[in-house]
Amino acid sequence: MSNPRPRPAYTSPPINRDLYDRIAATAGDASSRTLVTEFLIPPRSGKAWHVPAGAILRLSTPEGPQVGDFNLWNMHNPRERLWASRTRQLEKSHVSVGNRLWSSLPFMRPMVTIIADSLADYGVDAVGGRCHDLLGTRCDPYVNKLITNDDFDLHCHSNLTRAVLPYGLTEFDVHDVLNVFQVTGLDEEGKYFMRASPATGDTYIEFFAEQPLLCALSTCPGGDLSNWGWGDDGAMEDVCRPIKVEVFEIPRHARNEVLRDWEESKCPDYKGLHGMKSPQSE
Ligand SMILES: [Zn+2]
User: Which DSSP helix (H) or strand (E) runs through 159?
Assistant: First the structure.
């Protein structure tokens, strides 16, 4: 007799599907979606940028497969940032349309909602791999040193660190990532594995900003992960490509209709005293 399927331990609140379908439907319609920011992040580098609340962020791979390591902070308060592990619990280990990325305590509110994903049909592959990974984290020069005894300065942690320095942040602010366009899983022993990115020149993912954001993305030095290894033997460089960033705003005349029923995300209203009585002394 098979065991019953375990019940998910956490459930995220339902989302307003009509709202996010309306936002996603603005794609390709210049009258209801205005391009305000557009740039390419070159291979093996990082860049940070702002996304206003209520705007759409589109990441794409116009030159072919490439994985990206994505960080998010509240634009005005970098103590509020992506909480990858709680997002895994509330949503899934690998995210797609309808999933949200949640922020750290004591904020714990949606940062973005995924509204489009051209890899949504990837599903689960033959070895249990899934796409858009929250299981792992960024590659970094410290673990590179630990494993190979080599110095390498273009890991995602370093790319993200250089990207956020102009915004007054440091490597202490870089945090566990969403790996976009990246297929990963856990093997039978629970060990983390990565597979080649299934992205093509037409691949994209779109996020709707539920609050004002500072975003940063690294184009991983492992490229599309088809030829991946520690250190830098030069072979990986051949499979490294840029990632395109676009930010779209819903123009004023379309907001009442497209963003009907939307408001900036709210924190749970727990009073935050953790059982302490206040005042604690006279
Ligand atoms: Zn990386």
Answer: helix 156-164
CA 272/CA 106 separation, integer angstroms: 8
Which long-range CB contacts under 8 A does 264-268 form with residues at least 24 apart? 264/53, 264/54, 264/210, 264/211, 265/109, 265/110, 265/111, 265/210, 265/211, 266/109, 267/106, 267/107, 267/108, 267/109, 268/108, 268/109
**Does 265 fall in a domain?**
no
Inside any domain, residue 274: no
Q: Domain range spanning residue 114?
A: 17-202+211-258
The position carrying tokens 């205005």 is 34
Give the environment of ion ligand 1: residues with CB less than 5 A: 139, 156, 220
State in Å: Cα 155 to ligand 1 middle. 5
Residue-wise pLDDT for 196-233, tens only, equals: 999 999 999 999 999 999 999 999 999 999 988 876 66
* CA atoms of 208 and 262, how far apart (whole Å): 11
Q: How far is the CA of 228 from the centre of ligand 1 (A)?
A: 10
pLDDT per position as a tens digit, 30-58:
899 999 999 999 999 999 999 999 999 99
- Number of domains making up the chain: 1
| In-domain check, residue 8 | no
Task: Assess if residue 153 is contained within a domain.
Answer: yes
